[in-house]
Amino acid sequence: MPSCDGTPSGAAPPLLAARGLSRSFGRRRVLHDIHLTLEPGEALAVAGPNGAGKSTLLRLLAGLMRPSAGEVQVMGRPVRGEEGKARRVIGLLSHQSLLYDDLTLLENLTFAARLYGIARPREAAMAALEQAGLAARAEELPRRLSRGLLQRAAIARTRLHSPRLLLLDEPFTALDAASAERLRSELRDSLEAGLGVVLVTHHLAEVWGVATRIAVLVEGRWVWEEPRPGELDEFVSRYRGLVGA
Amino acid sequence: MPETFRLALAVAGKDIRAELRSRTALLSAIVFAALVLVVFNFARDPTALAVVDLAPSVLWVTFALAAMLALNRAFTIERENAAIDGLLLAPLPRGALFAGKLLANLAFVCTVEAITLPLFVLFFNVDLSGSWPGIVGVTLLATIGFVAVGTIFSAMAVRTRFAELMLPVLLLPFMVPPLIGAVQVTSRLLAGRPLSEMLGWLRLLALYDVVFVTLCAMAFSAVVDE
Amino acid sequence: MTAGRAIVRRGFTLIALAFAGLAGVYILVLGYTPIEARQGLAQKIFYLHVPAAWCSLMAFSLVGIASALYLWLHEPRLDRFAAASAEVGVAFSAVMLTTGPIWAKPIWGTWWTWDARLTLTLFLFFLFIGYLALRAAVHEPSERARFSAVVGILGMLLVPFIHLSVYLFRTLHPQPIVLKPSAPSLPPEMLRTLLISMAVFTLLYLGLVTTRYGIALKEEAKEEAADAS
Question: Which of A225, B144, B175, C106 is 20 to 30 A from C25 in CA distance terms?
Answer without folding.
Answer: C106
